[in-house]
């Protein structure tokens, strides 16, 4: 056979086998428990207001969602994954190895609440105090000295805090909320100690080991990906605190109260204006190869970024999401319309 013809046949065969073979007519979404309630309300409106099927949504945590998303192209893999933390280079590379092109969609902002029951005492804390309360190991008296966390009560950390046992319910390592809490609270509090801060440039692994590791002695309890379960446990235990997205605090404001950080209370306004220090953007990521194969993906994204969803009095704001601002929203809509593929 002519080598040119054979090369053409092989190239055509390769192109055909690279295409996803789809049998689904329903969008499959996985990922963040924080983004889940926002995605759910959009999916319900999308299903009612269009001729497309209502998407299926599974709350797997941000890390778990990206793992499923990056497994490959085809009907047995998700079309979209929600994330409350930004995609890591390692996760991006895992997708790239499977030839997955990713379209990034920022949907708004959220604060991380450190909250307890209204039957308990409201507190005002700093990132450093939370690091000292929750880290597996904390600085000793001498530079370079570490010791197993000795603090039993909040009063042990700071005499101005309550004399109650430290008990915090939080998300597991697969959660984007956990990743964001580590970055915005634990690492910032950890870096208040000069010799640990210096490790960030001299021994990054040691720095991460100190700043990112949570207690395993019962003071910090991994409560799974179900934020509603944490809310229920806090309602039953006034001395416990929980870590979750602002929307869950907002939806349970009759039962729970958020701690202040450095004198700033968590609220829609303080997250929107940037004065609340523990806030982060929320995203979802779309598999470009599935667009035009699984029906309705672009239409679903457009629904998420629509004026009805994204305005200050829109239905996502009612759920606790801080929507994108005017210029940022315009830019995001343009990037999505162009199906801009993200790069790292």
Task: Give structural attributes.
two-stranded parallel ribbon; alpha/beta; 41% helix; 16 helices; 344 residues; single chain
Write the layout of secondary structure elements.
Blueprint: H1 3-18, E1 28-31, H2 36-49, E2 56-57, H3 62-69, E3 80-83, H4 89-97, E4 102-117, E5 124-125, H5 127-134, E6 137-139, E7 146-148, H6 154-157, E8 168-170, H7 176-190, H8 194-202, H9 204-212, E9 220-222, H10 227-236, E10 241-245, H11 246-251, E11 256-258, E12 260-261, H12 268-272, E13 279-287, H13 297-304, H14 307-310, H15 315-318, H16 326-337
Parallel strand pairs: 1-2, 1-3, 5-12, 8-9, 8-10
Antiparallel strand pairs: 3-13, 4-10, 4-11, 4-13, 6-7
Helix pairs in contact: 2-13, 5-7, 7-9, 8-9
- Main sheet makeup: 9 strands, mixed
Order of helices and strands: HEHEHEHEEHEEHEHHHEHEHEEHEHHHH
Provide a count of the helices.
Answer: 16
- Rg value: 23 Å
**Relative strand content:** 15-25%
Number of strands: 13
Helix-strand makeup class? alpha/beta
Residue-averaged pLDDT: 90
The backbone outline, from C-alpha atoms, is globular
Distance between the termini: 43 Å
**Unreliable segments of 5+ consecutive residues:** 3-19
The helical percent reads 40-55%
